[in-house]
Amino acid sequence: MTKDEVIANIAGDLNSAEQSLDATIARTTTLIQSMIGARTALNLSPISGAASQARAMEAIAALSTAREALVACHEELAKDHRRHGYGVYAVGHMNKPAEAALTQTDEPVRHGRLRAV
Predict the structure, then answer these.
(1) Where are the domains of the chain?
(2) What's the CA gap between 38 and 30, in Å, rounded?
(3) Second label for 33, Cα 20 to 30 Å away, from 22, 44, 68, 78?
């Protein structure tokens, strides 16, 4: 395989993992909505099913933690990619948020200058 093919495979797998995790989070929230709706439709006490709903919410929290780790993995792969001099490579959806939206500090994003990665 060529370098470009290897990079494309990793980028594709990363994009697929991100989408799968997002879909799982969405499905799990739908499960909780269904549980609440069923309880309401059956006129059951709010206590009924509370433990199972709490477990589903714990699952969402764990999935959220997994998503944060996957986003961190994405950022590290991007740093490795630049560090090895491969330039910019994009695969998947291109409607990503602007870099300014991703910064975690109150510092303004500077454009046109080198920065540490």
Answers:
(1) 3-102
(2) 12
(3) 68
